[in-house]
Amino acid sequence: MKNFLIVCLSILTFSSFSQSKLNVKKEFEFAAKQYQGMLSSHPDLTQFPQSTLPDGSPRNMKSDWWCSGFFGGSLWYIYQYNHLPTWKAAAEKWTMAVENEKYNTRTHDLGFMLYCPFGNGYRLTKNPVYKDIMLTGAKSLATRFDPKIGLIKSWESFVGGYKYPVIIDNMMNLEFLFWAAKESGNKELYNLSVIHADNTMKNHYRPDFSSYHVLCYGPNGEILAKKTHQGAADESAWSRGQAWGLYGYTVMYRETKDKKYLDFARNIANFYLNNPNLPADKIPYWDFSKVGEERDASAGAICASALLELSTFGGKDAKTYYNSAVKMLESLSTPAYKAELGKNNHFILMHSTGHKPGNSEINVPLIYADYYYLEGLLRYESLRTKKKLF
């Protein structure tokens, strides 16, 4: 995400990779027009754009919802591309709208909520206020780590009376803690991130490198159950969960340079890309077991962004990772997934699936699909032009 480094351009010859139809300038111009409509339709800074309701009206959420940081983060990405002061002002406004969540100790999602907006904002402006807010938020997130269990607690409870559930999504919040460890000198934040990642790697994954969604732990770290919440079945591969893990372990390698994480990320990527149920356009069904059902554009966007970074670390499959990511972004940029201007409640992408088993957010836009799509486009542009954008 924010600290993405182009570390292997001397190894990889991207000019030999697939010639893309992507037009990043065109896509960001469209995104700016679409999000101008979003800004106009959202004057209330307590109502964060999230999705679309079944009746077609916008679904908005409060700042304590796990997705509240993605809108501000997307505005920063648009500003990063076009450098226009109006977008900086909008990004600043919607970023500060989630400031109070820095004290929130009831969620594991502060990486999404704080690091996506404030992290991008700090990277682009070096505003010291943003740094202070994030360091406070990182301390709040760290309170959810129990050293006896060795994992950051996700939810307060899970169906069946389980009191310490941990979800694969949690891998996405470690980048925030790594940043805070570097900025504050607090080695404990680094250490607990490594412990969490190691235990997730050991317990959450099957021999084929697909991931469970929810693991339920007892008070001494014993595994009580392996479940799903948003996937089709406990033993199925929920597509967005696979993307979260891929992204998370790619970040783990970047931040630690421990090759076990690089190998693990590659194995997750290979499970994903070689899955016989992955459609030709590389945008997955909401669960890999549900061929012919709804797609999840958000999983495709997350995966594309992760694969682009993974490709920079070299290896025999780097070209495959890069070309697959480009194909995903190309697919998302077609009318099959990209909305018409002024439609789709001003979201950029269509056809994401949030929580089908809960009959929620099925075949709709999702704010985080837009965020990772824009991030993927910036990463692609960085590699294509050999300019460090992150």
UniProtKB/TrEMBL annotation:
Keyword Ion transport: no
Known EC number: 3.2.1.-
SUPFAM superfamilies: Six-hairpin glycosidases
Molecular function GO terms recorded: hydrolase activity, acting on glycosyl bonds
Gene3D superfamilies: 1.50.10.10
UniProt cross-references to InterPro entries, sorted A to Z: 6-hairpin_glycosidase_sf, 6hp_glycosidase-like_sf, UG_Glycosaminoglycan_Hydrolase
Keyword annotations: Glycosidase, Hydrolase, Signal
Organism domain of life: Bacteria
Annotated signal sequence range: 1-20
Enzyme class: hydrolase
Membership in a protein family: Belongs to the glycosyl hydrolase 88 family.
Protein name: Unsaturated glucuronyl hydrolase
Record organism: Emticicia aquatica
